[in-house]
Amino acid sequence: MKKIAILGATGLVGQRFVEFLSNHPFFEISVLAASDNSAGKRYSQAVQWHLDTPIPDKVCQMQVQKCEPNFDCDYVFSALPSDIAGPIEDEFVKSGYIVFSNAASHRMDENVPLMIPEVNLDHLNLIDHQKTPGKIITNPNCSTIGLVMALKPIMDRFGIQQVHVVTMQAISGAGYPGVASLDILDNVIPYIKNEEEKIMTESRKILGNLKNDHVEFADFDIQAQCNRVPVQDGHMLSVFVETCQKATVEDIIKAFEEFRPLKDLNLPTAPERPLIYLPEQRSPQPKLHRNLGNGMSVSIGRLVQISEKRFRFVALVHNTIRGAAGCAILNGEVYEFLREDLE
Ligand code: NAP
């Protein structure tokens, strides 16, 4: 078993790490870390638990640590807020730890993989160009993950000219305590700080081509507009896409359904079907479909052809699972699986 430390273990994403890693076939939680306010407390006292499964017994009594690089562990999963994650993660990497980060701080660094294993596994090779004793691998912004997973099979088969996306993002995306209830109940807020920029830049890096020590960004136009909506979990995306080559609705659904790039690796957190196309007119919906594939599948519906090369559809991604902790864990599993080749 590989020993795992979770930074930001008391937050909403940290709780998903705890949930997924407390019963994992080759990772075991050895350290839970958070802010100085939580350090020294038992995990069950420090955390405001928000999941509908109980706090796993094996972590209840663990003492929360400060985020300092003195842990006995093999891998570090970081769910720290982006405004403080950068320097803390740097300390861990300088001290020789392998860090898998959810935070935005290092996502756009040239030598840092911004990885969704089903989409750009080859970008993992960027870590060979990191000159530090440890390494850092990041996963993208939560909405970006849902968008890019849906775009990847379209891009591979038909090319992409342009993308417009409008998001409807759940309140858990803002962490805890997040958005004030008086701001979000009975309301939609048409602004999420830095979110549109992240979607527009991260997508082109993830879908770009690896060129030795950097990624050449994918060359398509993309516009994003983000809204916060009163949903607990699950980000919805209304997507418009223009392809380079002609396609039909049937072609695109086939591309979604046949998208199973990890099927031979048998990774515990990889869903059998990364993309699930739901033909019913009223699908997908956060309440009904966010947990498909154990929260790791992206649900797609409402695919409409506008003209020979222009389509629109709706995608749904569980923001704290596939959009955060689940993607980081899958990155960890892939690293563990391929590590022999890298060393
Ligand atoms: P959160 O609920 O606000 O949790 C933040 C965590 O960081 C808590 O454990 C907190 O510990 C800890 N922390 C805060 N300040 C700290 C400090 N100075 N030193 C050490 N630890 C500190 O946030 P979240 O929603 O889980 O998000 C975590 C990260 O994942 C962020 O970078 C976010 O952008 C990213 N992300 C979130 C989502 C999502 O859907 N929520 C999706 C994708 C990516 P205390 O409890 O002790 O304060």
Secondary structure tally: strands: 14
- Based on secondary structure, the structural category is alpha/beta
The biggest beta sheet reads: 6 strands, parallel
> How many domains make up the coordinates?
2
Instruction: Write down the Rg.
Output: 19 Å
Helix content: 25-40%
Q: What is the CA-CA span between the terminal residues?
A: 19 Å
Query: If classified by CATH, what would the architecture of the largest domain be?
Result: 2-Layer Sandwich
- In terms of per-residue confidence, which ranges show pLDDT below 50 for 5 or more consecutive residues? none
Shape annotation: globular
What small molecules does this complex bind? NADP nicotinamide-adenine-dinucleotide phosphate
Beta-strand proportion: 15-25%
The CATH class name of the largest domain reads Alpha Beta
CATH superfamily membership of the largest domain, which one? Dihydrodipicolinate Reductase, domain 2
The number of helical segments is: 11
CATH topology of the largest domain: Dihydrodipicolinate Reductase, domain 2
Order of helices and strands: EHEHHEEHEHEHEHHEEEEHEHEEH
Mean pLDDT level = 97
Order of strands across the widest beta sheet?
Answer: 3-2-1-4-5-6
